[in-house]
Amino acid sequence: MNISVDLQHQESKVLGFIEGEIDAFTAPMLREKLTEITLDDSKEIILDFSEVSYMDSTGLGVIVGFFKKAKAENAKLKLIGLSSRLKRLFDITGLGEIMDIESAPREVN
């Protein structure tokens, strides 16, 4: 199982393109990449999951941990491109109601 995380920094915005499967093996790699993002009040982080084929509870934990860290720093986190399967994972856990999530991919300027 592999994961690829490409972070693109643009002024006060960070675009993260995640590809592959997020599980117990790859989640530490995702966590490490997310720690590279400097968080502050004006920062907007958009993570694109349109190329993620699978995520387990370990991956969900990494996203929740990053969400809490971003919220504590008053940064904005948005998840986009979630498949119906991934969106359902967030909805079942109640995270779909507290996190900014868009199921369909969108153009990011």
Defining traits:
Transcription Regulator spoIIAA, alpha/beta, five-stranded mixed beta sheet, 109 residues, globular
Structural commentary:
The protein is an alpha/beta fold. The protein has one domain: 2-Layer Sandwich (Transcription Regulator spoIIAA). 34% of the residues lie in helices and 35% in strands. It contains four helices and five strands. Strands 1-2-3-4-5 form a five-stranded mixed sheet, with helices on both faces. Strand 1 and strand 2 form a beta hairpin. Helix 1 (27-34) packs parallel to helix 2. The longest helix has 16 residues, at 57-72. The chain is globular and about 30 Å long. It starts with a strand and ends in a 7-residue tail after the last strand. The mean pLDDT is 91. Keywords: Phosphoprotein. Belongs to the anti-sigma-factor antagonist family. Residues 3-109 form the STAS domain.
Radius of gyration: 13 Å
Give the CATH level 1 class: Alpha Beta
H/E series: EEHEHEHHE
Distance between the termini: 31 Å
CATH third-tier fold name: Transcription Regulator spoIIAA
Shape: globular
Contiguous low-pLDDT stretches (5 residues minimum) are none
The quaternary state of the protein chains shown equals single chain
Number of strands: 5
User: Which architecture per CATH?
Assistant: 2-Layer Sandwich
